[in-house]
Design a protein that fits this description.
Layout lengths: L2 H11 L4 E4 L6 H10 L2 E4 L3 H15 L3 E5 L3 H5 L1 H10 L3 E7 L16 H5 L4 E4 L6 H12 L6 E7 H4 L25 H10 L3 E5 L1 H6 L2 H10 L4 E4 L13 E5 L14 E5 L20 E4 L4 H10 L6 H26 L5 H11 L5 E5 L1 H11 L20 H11 L5 E6 H4 L5 H7 L5 E6 L4 H11 L12 H7 L3 E4 L6 H9 L5 E6 L13
Parallel strand pairs: 1-2, 1-3, 3-4, 4-6, 5-6, 7-8, 7-10, 8-9, 10-11, 12-13, 13-14, 14-16, 15-16
């Protein structure tokens, strides 16, 4: 068998059923081997979309999504999904084809070494430089993608290595275990003791908690002792059902209730100490607040708190939830003021609240509409099966993300919520999604601009720069690509259009022209 055939055989043994891709000469042997192996090729019009499919599939399932792109700039185009997976600890494998290893560095076609651009964005990146080691190198990459700190990996597969014959007896197999990553964890006993002295504890449930599978244990502890739980915006959610302790997202650029600044004990459960939680620096926290990290060990913590007969933090939780409700209502009021009788983002949110059930996957694609969605749809729950770009906050991933959601959950409804700017990144891949029978509904909130940036510039600078976008008839664009489409002209038309779109059985695009604005809550007296 050829090295590339061993590669595909091993991918199948790892459970891979499809590869997101864009054709190119550097991939010809790999594509041919995939076809012979029965691996489905999900082809796209842009390598960026292919990489987002692999990235968001890994985020949704915990299993590496696989994408394959050709050499040179093709690999550079795929870095968007790779970077997104790196931010979000999402397992994925990027395979880049390239010219022959024998002439690398001599100026063959698209002679670019992809290891340099990919190494800082991956858990593992290397060239398959020995055909007999193809299985061993693939396995090592796979182990790194699924390690204790999961993430993206990359393999460069030169053409001459792909087509080298490798007898089975010459194959080298991996004997190296998955990498060991020691995460910073504080003593569970010390955390339990700190709870006994606290009056205002707060759990920050972040993305690594989702990947660790400990969300149920965390919520059990939080609900047993009435401890408020928040999640940094864009992180994977861990609250699938409405919970009395969930207090929404933190780190939104458009504001939030002040909770981190008042808590006297902050238990960080798999969240990154980044900008969304004030880098956990003293200036962002209450004076004397204690901060602990805990990813595993929740059962032991529960046992220690039970043994200490710790009473629940009922009054503190009541205060937090009341504050969250007041903030959410203020966001609704802000939207109503901005709407002033016209179509607004809040009307889209109201329609979504009607149709979202416990199985529908909501894909939220960045920008201003993402802020409205997080403030209003995530006030009581933040399901793990809702999809966001992750901590990168990238815009434009949505169509690839919706395709990934359909691949991961073929029996569920998928709704993409995007702004006009984000939607146009890869809009032509709607045609590919239709051709490959990966249906979803897309709602395009069109304010003819980069709304979040525009509003920020107005507030901070009093003027806007490079944030205005011209009009696009998104319904006509969608129809030209083969999709079902509607343009709504009033708030009352949104829900009927959405319900009709969900029954269309194909890609459906709803164009919703909206007045601009972000969910800025104005303090009393301003």
């Amino acid at each position: 068998m050829l090295a590339v055939e061993w590669f595909l055989k091993r991918l199948c043994e790892h459970g891979v059923e499809w590869i997101a891709t864009l054709c190119g000469h550097g991939l010809d042997p790999l594509h041919q081997a995939a076809q012979r192996a029965g691996v489905r090729l999900i082809d796209t019009r842009n390598e960026q979309t292919a990489s987002y499919i692999a990235d968001r599939y890994g985020r949704l399932t915990g299993r590496p999504g696989v994408c394959a792109v050709s050499s040179g700039v093709a690999c550079i185009n795929a870095l968007s999904g790779l970077a997104n997976a790196w931010f979000d600890h999402a397992p994925m494998l990027l395979v880049s084809g390239s010219g022959p290893l024998a002439t690398a560095g001599m100026g063959h076609f698209q002679d670019l070494d992809p290891i340099g651009p990919t190494v800082s964005l991956t858990r593992y990146s290397r060239t398959i430089d020995r055909p007999e080691r193809v299985v061993q190198i693939l396995d090592e990459a796979w182990y790194h993608a699924l390690g204790p700190d999961p993430g993206p990996v990359h393999l460069n597969f030169p053409l001459d290595v792909q087509v080298t014959e490798v007898p089975e007896e010459q194959l080298v197999w991996s004997a190296r275990p998955a990498p060991s990553v020691i995460l910073p964890e504080d003593s569970v006993e010390e955390i339990a003791a700190a709870f006994q002295k606290a009056t205002r504890p707060l759990i920050v449930a972040g993305g690594r908690l989702y990947h660790s599978g400990s969300a149920t244990e965390v919520l059990r502890v939080a609900e047993r002792w009435s401890i408020p739980v928040v999640t940094p915006i864009w992180d994977p959610g861990v609250v699938d059902q409405p919970s009395p302790v969930f207090a929404g997202v933190v780190g939104a650029s458009t504001g939030e209730p002040l909770l981190l600044q008042e808590a006297d004990l902050i238990l960080v459960a798999g969240a990154e100490p980044d900008y969304r939680i004030g880098y956990l620096q003293p200036a962002s926290l209450a004076p004397g607040a204690r901060v602990f990290h805990l990813l595993a060990g929740w059962r032991k913590l529960e046992e220690l708190l039970e043994a200490a007969d710790l009473p629940p933090f009922t009054e503190w939780l009541k205060t937090v939830i009341a504050r969250r409700k007041a903030f959410t209502e203020a966001v609704w009021q802000c939207g109503r003021r901005q709407a002033n009788g016209q179509i607004h983002a809040i009307h889209i949110i109201e329609a979504l609240q009607t149709v979202l059930d416990n199985r529908t996957i909501l894909v939220i694609d960045g920008g201003a509409i993402g802020q409205w969605a997080h403030h209003l749809l995530c006030a009581r729950r933040y399901p793990s099966y809702w999809l966001t770009p992750g901590p990168s906050g990238a815009v434009g991933y949505g169509i690839g993300g919706a395709m990934a959601a359909r691949l991961a959950f073929p029996d569920r409804r998928v709704i993409l919520l995007a702004g006009d700017g984000a939607f146009t990144f890869n809009a032509t891949d709607i045609e590919r999604a239709i051709a490959q029978q990966l249906p979803f509904v897309a709602i395009v909130a069109d304010d003819q601009g980069w709304g979040l940036t525009r509003e920020g510039q107005l507030q901070q600078l009093g003027a806007t720069f490079a944030t205005e976008l011209g009009p696009i008839a998104f319904d006509e664009l969608a129809r030209s690509l083969g999709a079902w489409a509607r343009r709504v002209k009033s708030p009352q038309e949104i829900l009927p259009a959405l319900e009709e779109a969900l029954d269309a059985g194909t890609i459906a695009v709803i164009h919703v022209p909206v007045v601009g604005g972000i969910p800025r809550v104005i303090p009393e007296g301003e």
